[in-house]
Design goal:
heterotrimer, A alpha/beta, B mainly alpha, C mainly alpha, A: alpha/beta, D-Maltodextrin-Binding Protein, domain 2, two-stranded antiparallel ribbon, 46% helix, 15% strand, B: mainly alpha, MetI-like fold, 0% strand, globular
Chain lengths: 419, 299, 276
């Protein structure tokens, strides 16, 4: 009975199709070359469209290269890329935050760029040196962002307050804002935002003069670190913060006028202005309200996958991104954040649309940028982050003292560092 | 007889061949590889480079008091969701078991949570649970039950309850349908007879109806329990296992170890523990099943 | 059908409360989707949908690739369903009708697959699919989804087939009909409710599936809706009303499916669960 063989035949057929399919399909397409470019910014309202346009512009000028835009959502970005790259697959070009970048280089995910691109001609900023490991340039700076105080000018002037320049002044302003019925501040407190929590806390720790680690040894229980955590917890417990609101929510609340200040990265003013055009002239940027003058930096890198089958095409795309034209477009996309090359901003594309640019530059000049990656512990960054966020949660929600929580965190951090 | 048997075997094997092929490839091989990984020190970044470390992952796990918390949380989550789903499902099934106008419509509506994808469920409930602007707090404070600002997902004491609420909402339709189907197979005559004898509603329920669907309830409990050990996306999208590990079940911990911390070996070890837990539950189920079958005189 | 009198009023109240709580989240999705963002952060939320404000739906459909994502989800779901039924049917029939060597082992293996969480298998399956070129292919997801549904489907179908008297098949065999024809034209129609139930289970699972889709598909135009909608949670902002609008659109197909198939689903589960 031929019928009986049917399921067998079907299974074999499926198997053959599965094995030969991709080869056959690849044989069909000679040119153009297709490369995959992954960035979470594709999913962002406002930034996504601009990035799309940038990639399209490149494709117009290079008809032999087709770029597949891979939009992985930010919360799952690192895990997805790591899973794929770990198997020798993954996108040809991708961005990655500075906390994951060293780990990725160590695992061999990035291709050294020296051979593929004409680096000396690019006029790179000094931040790009952070992507040099063992003498090789594994990636370039996509955006060198920093955290600063972003505030609603109208709300502050309505209580007659000047921009706080120290923690004590900050507390005073916060109290007066609370009496007016407005949230003074916001930061990430939900367990789904561990990474963001880390950036936020880092600013307070650095503001108190502390550092996460020294020479590869964690110092989570250092007195200034504890002080920073304690201050932040105090803000939370005093009710100055909308509890349980995630970053997306409280940023929206900011542009609805319900939150007066936050310490956030410099892409925010552009986002806020896009969310509520009325806010455009009310956004103020200043240095963090701490005396130490240190603030957190957040660098995103971009690089070429070491397992890419089309490195030349990928390098052409990268070269475009780092050309004057590409860099200006990127600068506009990121809302005025520093890009990887020294730009000639005489014709600033953001122009009149970003009245805060001057304040932004002043704020950056006035502070010292400190990476959020614990010194010497780049490989363990994400695990240390988990330890830190748990400690913070203990302080915020369980009433543990900052001292005790950080002591415990330090034990865990040392164990992780020792592995 | 010999050749007949062989013919039967061959026909049967052809029949199960597609399933065997599919499952062996997509589940069998990965399970074996996963178990192997649990004895190694593999990183997500280089999953094909493994160093054998024996039982170290397991001993490390059991030495962590955070893992003990994970086990407790898993137990709480499993028990809570199963009891909630069965009780609510039973209530729903009892109420729906009977002719009333609009019954079709009601049954269709009960299916809604089942038909709603987890991503959408998580998104809307996060918004409903929002401390300052969520409708739940609004409703509860309007009737004076609370004083505003309750952190449903952020308060370590409340988070598990909230996650359970969402879980039970999502799974009780399945439970209700299964129980409804079983209820409909309980002969009406038995219940009528009991009522004629003067038995009151509640007694009818406990003495006649429930025992009649005993088998189904047990199977339902079994499957719901095992599935609760696997449920990942809903918890992850709601709380990622936090705050302070309040909702950190085995699967959530597995994912974090494997994909956030990149420790595939340790994640696999957690998976194996979960696997053993499921087997344990099944053994308990069989024991309970046999016991109650004997008691009902069916063994 | 047992008719129970639980006090008409009490029952009605219970039904109303139950249905209300059950569909409330969907209702809330609708309300949020039709609320202008400036009204989302008031002290008292709008409780009724504002059908005058449908901009979020327009945004969801125009500004995003939602329609494409939904198409992908549909293709994956249908493919998963077909594959599941094709695979589970033959296995279920064999388990039901034949006493063959390895029967117990096969049944046990099927059951054992229920014990492992999908995320546990994510990396090994990724490696496997990479080797066989199944990544970035909708077929790959169909295969993975089917693999997770087939055990339950087989069990459901088996118990349904158990309930079909063998005499019917014997009669047809005596008439000289080939086995496969008997299976498809005689047995299958008799267990239609269970087949429907299996279809629904397979379809829903595939429609819902997130983690594998996220990791296995990186091409933007192959992305299913589950991943697409999750991608709205951007690094910086999440437009809540658009998310809810998109979610509603995403929920509609399975809702409609459920409403229409509910009679079969119940019937199909009857055949499965009565046997316990």
């Amino acid at each position: 009975m031929s019928f009986r063989k049917f399921p067998y035949a079907a299974a074999i057929g499926l198997g053959i199709a599965g094995l030969l399919g991709p080869e056959w399909a690849a044989a069909q397409s000679a040119s153009p070359v297709t490369i995959e470019f992954a960035a979470w910014q594709f999913t962002e309202k406002g930034r996504g469209e601009k990035l799309n346009a940038l990639v399209d512009k490149f494709m117009q000028g290079h008809p032999d290269i087709k770029i597949e835009k891979v939009a992985v959502p930010y919360p799952q970005f690192e895990q997805t890329i790591f899973t794929q790259a770990g198997q020798g697959a993954g996108p040809d070009v991708f961005v990655l935050g500075d906390d994951a970048f060293p780990k990725a280089v160590n695992a061999g995910f990035f291709e050294p760029l020296g051979e593929l691109m004409d680096l000396p001609s690019l006029n790179l900023t000094s931040v790009n040196e952070d992507a040099v490991i063992d003498g090789k340039q594994y990636g370039l700076v996509w955006g060198a962002n920093t955290y600063n105080l972003i505030y609603n000018k109208e709300l502050l002037s309505s209580i007659g307050a000047k921009v706080p320049a120290s923690y004590e002044e900050f507390l005073d302003v916060a109290k007066r804002l609370q009496e007016k019925g407005v949230f003074a501040f916001a930061f990430r407190t939900t367990s789904a935002e561990t990474a963001g929590m880390w950036y936020d806390v880092s600013n307070w720790v650095y503001g108190a003069g502390g550092r996460w680690a020294k020479d590869g040894q964690p110092e989570f229980d250092g007195p200034q670190v504890v002080e920073g955590v304690d201050r932040l917890a105090n803000i939370y417990k005093s009710g100055y913060v909308p509890k349980g609101a995630d970053a997306a929510t409280y940023r929206r609340m900011f542009w609805e006028g319900k939150v007066a200040m936050f310490i956030d990265n410099l892409s925010l003013p552009g986002i806020i202005a896009a969310g509520n055009p009325d806010m455009r002239d009310k956004i103020g940027v200043a240095r963090n309200p701490f005396q130490s003058g240190d603030h957190a930096s957040l660098t995103t890198f971009i690089g070429i996958n070491a397992n890419s089958k089309n490195k030349k095409a990928a390098a052409e795309f990268m070269s475009y991104l780092f050309s004057q034209e590409g860099q200006l477009a990127l600068y506009e996309l990121l809302g005025g954040v520093s890009v990887g090359t020294k730009l000639d901003l005489s014709n600033n594309p953001l122009g009149g649309n970003a009245p805060w640019l001057g304040e932004m530059e002043a704020a950056i000049e006035a502070q010292r940028a400190v990476s959020t990656v614990p010194e010497g512990l780049a490989q363990k960054a994400s695990e240390l982050r988990t330890v830190m966020s748990e400690a913070l949660e203990q302080v915020l929600f369980n009433g543990t003292s900052a001292q005790d929580a950080m002591k415990k965190a330090q034990e865990q951090a040392k164990a992780i560092a020792a592995e | 007889m010999q050749s007949n048997e062989r013919a039967i075997n061959r026909e049967a094997w052809f029949g199960i061949a597609p399933a065997v092929l599919l499952l062996a490839a997509v589940q069998g091989y990965p399970i074996l590889r996963g178990i192997y990984l649990s004895f190694t020190n593999t990183s997500l970044l280089s999953p094909n480079r493994s160093t054998f470390v024996g039982l170290r992952n397991f001993t490390a796990l059991f030495n962590l008091d955070s893992f003990q918390i994970t086990m407790v949380k898993t137990l709480v989550y499993a028990t809570g969701s199963v009891i909630g789903a069965v009780v609510l499902g039973l209530a729903a099934a009892l109420v729906m078991n009977g002719a009333f106008p609009g019954r079709r419509l009601v049954r269709a509506m009960i299916l809604v949570p089942w038909a709603t994808p987890q991503v959408a469920v998580a998104l809307v409930f996060v918004w409903i649970f929002n401390a300052d602007y969520g409708v739940l707090n609004y409703a509860l404070s309007s009737i004076g039950l609370i004083d505003g600002g309750v952190l449903w997902l952020n308060d370590p004491d409340l988070a598990m309850g909230s996650v359970l609420l969402v879980t039970i909402w999502k799974i009780f339709p399945f439970s209700a349908l299964v129980l409804l189907a079983a209820l409909q197979s309980v002969p009406a005559s038995l219940e009528e007879a009991a009522r004629i004898d003067g038995a009151r509603g509640f007694a009818v329920l406990t003495e006649i109806t429930l025992p009649g669907i005993r088998r189904t309830i047990l199977v339902l409990v079994l499957f719901l329990s095992i599935w609760s050990l696997r449920r990942f996306e809903l918890i992850w999208l709601l709380t990622q296992g936090g705050p302070v590990r309040a909702t950190n079940t085995l699967v959530v911990d597995l994912y974090r170890q494997g994909f956030v911390n990149a420790h595939l070996g340790r994640a696999a070890a957690i998976g194996v523990v979960g696997f053993l837990a499921s087997i344990l539950i099944t053994i308990v189920y069989y024991y309970v099943e046999q016991r109650s079958a004997r008691r009902a005189g069916e063994a | 059908m047992t008719g129970r009198r639980v006090g008409g009023v009490a029952r009605t109240v219970a039904i109303v409360v139950m249905v209300g709580l059950t569909i409330f989240p969907i209702y809330w999705m609708l309300v949020t989707a039709t609320t202008d963002t400036s009204r989302l952060f008031l002290d008292a939320p709008d409780l009724l949908p504002n059908f005058g404000h449908l901009a979020a739906f327009a945004a969801a459909l125009d500004d995003t690739a939602l329609l494409l994502w939904l198409l992908n989800s549909a293709i994956i779901a249908v493919g998963t369903t077909v594959l599941t039924i094709a695979t589970a049917w033959f296995a279920a029939y064999a388990l039901s009708r034949y006493r063959f060597r390895g029967r117990g082992a096969f049944g046990l293996a099927l059951f054992a697959t229920q014990f492992l969480p999908e995320v546990f298998l994510l990396v090994p399956i990724y490696g496997l699919f990479l080797t066989f070129g199944l990544l970035n292919r909708l077929e790959g997801l169909m295969i993975v989804n089917a693999a997770f549904v087939v055990p339950v489907a087989t069990w459901l179908l088996k118990t349904a087939i158990d309930a079909v008297p063998r005499e019917i098949e014997e009669a047809a065999r005596v008439d000289g009909a080939p086995r496969l024809a008997i299976q498809i034209s005689i047995v299958a129609p008799l267990v239609l409710p269970s087949l429907a139930a299996v279809s629904v289970i397979a379809f829903f699972h595939a429609w819902d599936e997130f983690v594998f889709a996220l990791t296995f598909i990186s091409k933007a135009d192959l992305r299913p809706a589950s991943v697409g909608i999750a991608s709205f949670v951007g690094e910086l902002t999440t437009p809540l009303d658009v998310i809810m609008a998109a979610s509603l659109i995403y929920v509609l197909p399975t809702l409609i499916f459920a409403v229409f198939a509910q009679r079969y689903v119940i019937g199909g589960l009857v055949a499965g669960s009565v046997k316990g």
